[in-house]
Amino acid sequence: AGSSTNSILPLNKNASKLWGGIEDLNPVSNINCEFSTIDIFMEKNLINYIDFLKIDVQGAEFKVLEGAKKNLLSQSIKLIQVEVIVVSTYEGQKTMGFYLDLFESYGYTLKGISDMAHHQGQLLQLDMFFII
Fold this sequence. Notes:
Blueprint: H1 15-18, H2 38-44, E1 50-55, H3 61-66, H4 69-73, E2 77-85, H5 96-105, E3 109-119, E4 122-131
Parallel strand pairs: 1-2
Antiparallel strand pairs: 2-4, 3-4
């Protein structure tokens, strides 16, 4: 048996219930990983501009964006798709409002939303598209 998801954030206790009773939505193991940032990756590989960036890291999207601050400030990334989990699935996950405010502070606007997932009338997650 495995888990239905992987994240660097711990699962909330009620996550399985909120997602419709997914039985294998529970912690299985912890693995130590090393990470870099978008800013470091772009600098190291002499990348000056990204046309499209998709971020889907199970509730930790805000951490990826923290590591892209330099390129968000300079608006070197034109279009960003970010998955936002709406129900309380992971400890420390951020809200839709957080992402709206964050991107607005960098001069981005919400262009659209897609891939909305629901369970019993409750919005679970969606993808938000931000553009400069």
